[in-house]
């Protein structure tokens, strides 16, 4: 049986072309302009991987901007700042992975009521989201927003609160069925006294239960750090994370064999997330036909991705509001399980809203388009050429015959129109195609 | 040598032309069609242009270089289009006087603009018109030129031989006989309202805040027959005076005017940013919201009052006892941020530096002081309860007393969290009483400093707005990076664009030493004056 994580080797029959670059940029980032995609096709697979995942040291941190974004304590501003980071995509995989972790450790400001804590949690994802899971999970167990969200700031030796420990096992590290109620109760005791003060983690020794605990068959006076160390080493944790990553980056229903292979890769890397994900992104599995356009674009994929595909300059605050209207309000996930995504993103109402957003964007109501899409249509007078240009710009030229015919019909209807009007009509039609709703 | 001679010639020409200026504008005004709804006149338009040029030049330092370059290109393009300098062009075409008129559109047509001028050099002016006949609608009538935005507009001018002068000849322009106003204008509000008909904005149904803030101006626009305007400029000042023959004092909304309007008002300190005093009574507004506000606004006010009245239990009424104990009007001032206490705060500097805000008002009834303190305590408790819900440390309430008075201060807890302190740590909301006045301020410093300053001379009442450009520029500069990020997030600008926007804003603000706007009412007249002082 072949290794699904074996590197993808481009060939004459299966080249590294615009479709594959578009796939990589959509899954490992928030898409990119046609110019960037063409450059990456020329540069090749390794350069493209290096583009989406440059060494973190090469990327300037946004610490000063973060302080400015949180200064007012306004959640809308923090949300807009996160959209701005996605629009910039200085490190596409980092922005994408932070998005993943936000859905994984789903924390909502609706309960936390602290935009600063929410912003700092996202900054932790930026900083540690591609490091080792050991370090990330420990940081999340000390994260003020998460501790408050899951009531650990009231978890004391006298009155243990199991909420945090239960979600730690069920949603963050092991998955249902891989721990016992006894494990939850003991872990809850280990996290007693892990509280928040003045917006930072604060250990309160007098509220901590330092007695012996039995966890996963072992005995000891465990604290939260010991629980994290024990959890990350469990094989179920690797399987759990691998399945989550495959669902997010590759396929909504991954094969068990692929899960096992990715879990092994993760273990071999020393539980290094970045190493594991980069291996996944350059694998045959990632570039397989089964993985291509098998996921539904989230509102963030659709909104931010469309802006980036068109090279538009849009107001992040306005985009964040659009994403919210489409069902994805960053920093306010619907529940502790995050967004269920995929088919849940699509409904007749959502499709209409998506269509309206693109029409507004092309009409300049979300900001300037630069260069204006009409530039791509300059010199293209034949409807067939215009339809092809739209398909390239938004769909990497990959669409089925009915879609192609539909685009051509719109282009023919716009035959007498100037380039700007025709571009807007044809691009809008392209963005309304079923293919464009897929990631 | 050639250049010297030409400059000398131009000087002689301009000097001789000046003799033409200051001429009687009545003949020009007599030709303005009666249907005109607004007319502006200048007996010496060249002097007006020189004054404006002197005021605006040089462009403020600090403007982005590309913007300065664009201005330069624009001026050059204008010179090319005018075949010479703007001054020489204006002297040539209108050195003996200029009247501009706005005509409402005929059915199916556009608004029209007319210009009647008396050229200093009729031959040269006629030649200019002939050269630009393809772009400019211009005819010569005796010693004057008539320009119009269309040929039809030119035809609407009253002929010099008309049996009687038009109504604008007797309109009472100050500069009609060479007065000192640089530019003098008048709008026929009655005609404008009639022309607008049902499309006219329903000024009586303005939203609550607009109705309250702009009450005198709204009334003047809705009731006055005409609006007079005078513009005067020199190298350091621009003065705008507007006068309308109607007054809120004689209207049903007169009750909105403050009864204590003649009391002394606090002076804006030299480093202050903004001072705003509205000669208005919040007490009157809230006592009868249904009388002054639209139904929705009135309902919102009733909702607010049901809560406000509960703050002090059954012991007092928010309107009758708290507001009734104050001698309105109130004055809002914005002061520069107090210097940070470096020893007290070791957190990184905050990217937002808040200016200080203070509202002060004279005290009419000492009994209101107790109501104010009790209300302030309840509000502080509510705020602290909300902070506790968010896991934030409470503001610490302290009763303090010093030479300037006594008060209640909500002091922010020290910041021990990550990064720079939240912006609310710059606040110490304060209620301060002293010298027969009350101050409610965003900081203790602002409250105490405001009441420690001697009040200004007794005011004649009216509304006053003072803006100090350099202080506003400094406040913007103090938080510039965060404000730039705001534009990036809200407008979609990149950092360079946001930087340009604030560079221009700061440069313009720094160039304005002070802008003072006043609205004065007497029994039958509303006067609005704007005085802008350019910083040199």
Annotation field: number of helices of chain B = 19
For the biggest sheet of chain B, the summary is:
18 strands, antiparallel
Strand percentage of chain B lies at 15-25%
Mean pLDDT of chain A: 94
- Give the structural class of chain B: alpha+beta
Say how many strands of chain B there are. Answer: 18
Determine the mean pLDDT of chain B.
86
Dominant shape of chain A: globular
As an assembly, this protein is heterodimer
Q: What's the number of helices of chain A?
A: 23
Straight-line distance between termini of chain B: 34 Å
Radius of gyration of chain B: 29 Å
Strand order of the largest sheet of chain A: 1-2
Low-confidence stretches of chain A: none
- How far apart, in Å, are the first and last alpha carbons of chain A? 28 Å
Descriptive account of the structure:
The complex is a heterodimer of chains A (439) and B (536). By secondary structure, chain A is mainly alpha-helical. In chain A, the strands form two sheets. Chain A has a two-stranded antiparallel sheet with strand order 1-2. Chain A has a two-stranded antiparallel ribbon with strand order 3-4. The model of chain A has no long low-confidence stretch (mean pLDDT 94). Chain B has two domains: 184 residues, no CATH class; 285 residues, no CATH class. Chain B has an 18-stranded antiparallel beta sheet, sandwiched between helices. In chain B, strand 17 and strand 18 form a beta hairpin. In chain B, helix 3 packs antiparallel against helix 5 and helix 17 runs antiparallel to helix 19. Classes of the chains: A mainly alpha (439), B alpha+beta (536). At the A-B interface, helix 4, helix 5 and helix 18 of A face helix 18 of B.
Give the arrangement of secondary structure elements.
The complex is a heterodimer of chains A (439) and B (536).
Chain A: H1 18-27, H2 34-43, H3 45-52, H4 63-70, H5 75-88, H6 92-104, H7 109-112, H8 115-128, H9 133-141, H10 144-149, H11 163-173, H12 181-190, E1 194-197, E2 200-203, E3 213-215, E4 218-220, H13 224-233, H14 235-249, H15 256-268, H16 273-281, H17 299-310, H18 316-325, H19 348-362, H20 374-377, H21 383-395, H22 401-413, H23 419-431
Antiparallel strand pairs in A: 1-2, 3-4
Chain B: H1 2-18, H2 26-30, E1 38-42, H3 45-56, H4 65-82, H5 86-94, E2 98-103, E3 112-117, H6 122-131, E4 137-141, E5 144-148, H7 151-155, E6 183-188, H8 189-196, H9 208-213, H10 215-223, E7 226-233, E8 237-244, E9 274-277, H11 282-287, H12 289-292, H13 295-311, H14 318-322, E10 326-335, E11 356-363, H15 367-389, E12 396-402, E13 405-411, E14 430-434, E15 437-441, H16 444-452, E16 463-467, H17 469-478, H18 480-491, H19 495-511, E17 512-521, E18 526-534
Antiparallel strand pairs in B: 1-2, 1-6, 2-3, 3-5, 4-5, 6-7, 7-8, 8-18, 9-10, 9-16, 10-11, 11-15, 12-13, 13-14, 14-15, 16-17, 17-18
Helix pairs in contact in B: 3-5, 17-19, 18-19
